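stage 2 :: seqdesign
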């Protein structure tokens, strides 16, 4: 098996009017199969019947349903799309049960919910069984959809195992390829860095570098507020309101795309210039319930840390998370003395040993020291567990060179 990590490469696609209708039909069929499967399992539970197995469910809501007059139109789309919709339902149930039993760590996962045609995100997935193909002319051939024009921004490093076609709230279409990438170790360097994430500065590095927080959402707040006010004046159910909803969604998408692009560039620079990266394991979900929630979401800490993790695994760097309970801010990085808690407005402090500390710079140095100590205790480098395919790995530009796979 090819070593490395799975990545998602996202590219804009431009379907014709006829292809948009075919995709809408596929979105609808996948949604109906998902909802039929969910309804069948809920009804079986309410009736006290055994849990409907995956095979029985596929036969019930796909094979048998196609023979009825009410669901005969399911045959108009690729059967792989329908099977993948059920695979999503089965995965949702497995995650829910694992969360209930405690096998899945983290926050409690809710049971699957019904999908709606008004959901902001519509998606269908094609696997290799569907025989999708990237043609020599750069177009993406999908069964019962046609050849879609793709705006390539880079070449795919390997043949994709699946492709997901997505329509977002802004009405844009994307093709998201899952690719197994090989490790590409970079030349070793001597630098190691600890990173303290914050709101005043997005990141402060242990070498003293301070990276200002771009605050993309805050900068776009005035325009978003104006668009939202315009939306609130439109009559519900009208065409003008639907157009206003799309304008608001496009503005938010522009903010998200800009933030993601900035985070990719910053994380790539850090991984290239340092051999080992250590970050604090922040409780983002808890901070998102405070009065700082908007700023926390705008910062995108979790996305940034996830990028560092998979890029470190891919490029042969060391990545480690430091315990969130480490008193990194109030512990002297010179003598190790732990002082009293510091208010947020205290940006510098003096240790009894005589050291003068910048609050964030001191925290970054303590994070680096704790990360090094953790590695020494383990006796081996930290390498993340197998990572899922990351979204948004590739930015989208105008059409460049076609993909060769």
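stage 2 :: out
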């Amino acid at each position: 098996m090819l070593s490395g990590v799975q990545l998602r490469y996202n590219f804009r696609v431009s379907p014709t009017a006829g292809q948009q209708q075919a995709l809408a039909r596929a979105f609808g069929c996948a949604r109906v199969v998902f909802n039929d499967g969910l309804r069948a399992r809920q009804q079986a539970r309410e009736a006290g019947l055994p849990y409907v197995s995956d095979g029985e469910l596929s036969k019930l809501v796909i094979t048998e349903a196609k023979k009825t007059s009410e669901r005969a139109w399911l045959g108009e789309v690729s059967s792989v799309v329908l099977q993948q919709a059920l695979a999503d339902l089965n995965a949702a149930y497995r995650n829910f049960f694992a969360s209930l039993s405690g096998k899945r760590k983290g926050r409690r996962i809710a049971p699957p919910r019904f999908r709606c045609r008004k959901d902001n995100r519509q998606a269908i997935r094609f696997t290799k069984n569907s025989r999708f193909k990237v043609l020599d002319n750069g177009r993406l051939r999908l069964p019962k959809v046609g050849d879609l024009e793709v705006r390539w921004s880079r070449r795919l490093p390997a043949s994709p195992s699946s492709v997901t076609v997505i329509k977002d709230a802004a009405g844009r279409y994307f093709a998201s390829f899952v690719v197994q990438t090989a490790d590409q170790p970079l030349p070793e360097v001597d630098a190691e860095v600890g990173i303290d994430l914050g709101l005043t500065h997005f990141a402060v590095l242990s070498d003293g570098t301070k990276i200002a927080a771009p605050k993309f959402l805050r900068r776009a707040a005035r325009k978003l507020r104006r668009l939202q006010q315009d939306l609130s004046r439109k009559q519900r159910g009208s065409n003008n309101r639907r157009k206003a909803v799309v304008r608001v969604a496009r503005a938010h998408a522009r903010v998200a795309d800009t933030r993601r692009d900035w985070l990719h560039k910053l994380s790539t620079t850090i991984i290239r210039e340092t051999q080992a990266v250590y970050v604090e394991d922040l409780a983002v979900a808890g901070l998102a319930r405070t009065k700082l929630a908007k700023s926390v979401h705008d910062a995108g800490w979790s996305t940034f840390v996830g990028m560092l993790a998979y890029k470190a695994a891919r490029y042969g760097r060391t990545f480690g998370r430091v315990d969130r309970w480490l008193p990194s801010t109030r512990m002297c990085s010179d003598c190790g003395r732990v002082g009293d808690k510091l208010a947020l407005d205290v940006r510098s402090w003096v240790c009894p040993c005589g050291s003068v500390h910048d609050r964030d710079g001191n925290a970054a140095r303590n994070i680096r020291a704790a990360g090094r100590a953790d590695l020494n205790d383990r006796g081996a480098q930290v390498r993340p567990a197998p990572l899922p395919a990351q979204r948004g790995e590739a930015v989208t530009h105008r059409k460049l060179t076609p993909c060769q796979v």
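stage 3 :: structure notes
- The two ends are 18 Å apart (CA to CA).
- Confidence is low (pLDDT under 50) at residues 378-387, 393-405.
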